[in-house]
Amino acid sequence: MTEKPFASGFEKPEIPQLSAADIQSVVDFCKPAFGFSEWVALRGAQKPYYFNLDKVYAHSQYTARFHDIFIEFIKDIAKAEKFRFLLKEIPPVLGFVCLDGAPAGIVQVRGLLSERLGWPTVLVFPEKRLLRARVIPGDGSKSFPESVAWLSGRYSLLLSDAATTGESIASAAGALRAFGSKVFGAAVVYNRDEGADISLATVNIPLYSLLGPTDIKGIDDELSERIQVGDKETRDFAFVMAEAG
Fold first, then answer.
1. Does position 96 have pLDDT exceeding 60, yes or no?
2. Is 2 inside any structural domain?
């Protein structure tokens, strides 16, 4: 049985919406991350485009502004009333979802988030059922011990570049649960709008995103026209979480 941090019937807390100027800045930053060749998602699904933040960090004049927006976005999630009640003024753990063979992506801002927010972070490798916490300055010290025993009883917020089905996020939540940490939400830069939010809701993980296909429309019509949104796939991830743990 999947242990959930919220009671049944829980509704996703609302957070402040990005301003039009901030959405423009996020689109400007993220545009090079879109690539239009087929790639294979989890379980062999063919997708007509991909989202790879590594292509952005190689050369972008918008990085500093994006980081400011992303940090405020993360803070807004943690400040939502229902989440503040759970956290009880104890900073959440930021769990970075790391998949075998996947680009580094948002993991590249791990040190920056630790420094700017002062929150502990951990790398989550759901396919290996492994966590790594080395060299994290989240509590003001130079590093946490490699042991992740300190995670027990803590609430975590998962971070990833993008969400497609949500399976990798659910797997990461299962891995964290095995170490005693409950995931209260997930945040991604880009949501492909293919059912991840609905599927993650089956295991009480609210999904938040900076950007989605509808946000791009009207800001960059050329990019918007090339993005093909796939069919929404809704799955119950209780088994996925149990298997990962």
1. yes
2. no
Break the chain down into helix, strand, coil percent, rounded to 5.
Answer: 40, 20, 40
pTM of the shown model = 0.88
- d(CA 94, CA 42) in angstroms, rounded, equals 23
Asked whether residue 9 is domain-assigned, the answer is: no
- CA nearest to 121, candidates 71, 171, 84: 71
For the record, the structure tokens of 78 come out as: 């943690």
| CATH code (residue 102) | 3.40.50.2020
The band of 241, judged by pLDDT with boundaries at 50, 70 and 90, is confident
pLDDT of residue 197: 93
Q: How confident is the model at residue 235 (pLDDT cuts 50, 70, 90)?
A: confident
Where does residue 224 rank: exposed (0-12), middle (13-18), buried (19+ CB within 10 A)?
Answer: middle
**Domain contains 161:** yes
Rg of the chain over all Cα atoms, to the nearest angstrom: 17
The two structure tokens encoding residue 192 = 């492909």
**Strand, helix or coil at 5?**
coil
Distance of CA 135 to the CA centre of its chain: 21
